[in-house]
Amino acid sequence: MRRALAALRSWTTSVPLAAAVLLAAVWGSHPGVFLAVVVAVALAGAVLAAVHHAEVVAHRVGEPFGSLVLAVAVTVIEVGLIVTLMVSGGPETASLARDTVFAAAMITMNGILGLCLIVGAVRARLAVFNAEGTGAALATVATLATTCLVLPTFTTSRPGPEFSPAQLTFAAVVSLLLYGLFVVTQTVRHRDFFLPVETDAAHPNAHAAPPSDRTAMVSVGLLLVALVGVVGLAKVESKSIEDGVAAIGLPHSFVGVVIALLVLLPETIAAVRAALRNQIQVSLNLALGSAMASIGLTIPTIAVASIWLEGPLLLGLGSTQMVLLALTVVVGVLTVVPGRATRLHGGVHLVLLAAFVFLAINP
């Protein structure tokens, strides 16, 4: 009984539950200023709780399963949110999937990756990782992004940046097969390619005893609750974000970028904390795994949802977006090939993220 009461008193338990209760209370409403601040505080708490429970699960199951759990969990909930918005929205949601997936890819491949490389390089002079595993992940992300987000701009079966039903089915099947093949490679056939490189600068807590099965299962449940709170409260907060964006004269599409930044906060914090432990490979697993899951799981789900969704489904990127994506892939290859990176590599990726955000504000 005492243990149960102690668990309930723990902030890592109470905050996700409180966030879920708040989400149920405010879902579908347009909160005022005070309630928007409360939602923002609850959102921040849910993010920190999600990171804590993700690290508990990761410590129990080991890498690369730990980073895979967080990436897939966030993406599944994010996909559910996209489908919900598209079902309840109007014509303006035709490009929602494309905008959200592309924003997530740019944030993870440039923002999370660049920040972690800088943190690792500052801490240990060089950020060291496995080029084989990271290169395979980058190749998978590049293939998924080109197939699902670039090709629709150039196909001619439908007017505009849109797949025909047969083309969308092909892209969905290929995405699932490619993502499944990568997961098997990452967790079974070549798991060693995705494990942290042992260095003399290893964090002293890296070899701590793993938590019990019961503790890990509790953390899995609370992780899911926290992530539902993060994504749901980000959606509720989007009303206030839209008002703020409109008030300062920014394009409406920038709202998607802000929401993507909020939704990806748990992965960002978890990746940076791994970099502080000099586990750069874990950080890269999270960054590229999130980009891969965002594309590889969203497009098949949207393909199925399009059966009952009305209106066009715009997936093709514009010319500016394609240039940013191509440059991101090229820079990523040059970063990954040596298996080690400096602060300069991280800085280049962060500049690419800054270019993406700036052009989203000022297209």
UniProtKB/TrEMBL annotation:
Presence of keyword Membrane: yes
Cellular localisation: Membrane
GO-annotated cellular components: plasma membrane
Main subcellular localisation: membrane
Keyword set, alphabetical order: Membrane, Transmembrane, Transmembrane helix
Keyword Transmembrane helix among record annotations: yes
UniProt membrane topology term: Multi-pass membrane protein
Cross-referenced Gene3D superfamilies: NCX, central ion-binding region
GO function terms (MF aspect): potassium:proton antiporter activity; sodium:proton antiporter activity
The Sodium/calcium exchanger membrane region domain, residue ranges: 33-187, 219-361
TM helices/strands, residue ranges: 34-53, 65-89, 101-122, 134-154, 166-184, 216-234, 246-265, 286-309, 315-337, 344-361
PANTHER family with a match to the protein in the record: SODIUM-POTASSIUM/PROTON ANTIPORTER CHAA (PTHR37958), SODIUM-POTASSIUM_PROTON ANTIPORTER CHAA (PTHR37958:SF1)
Protein name: Ionic transporter y4hA
Native organism: Phytohabitans suffuscus
Gene expressing this chain: chaA
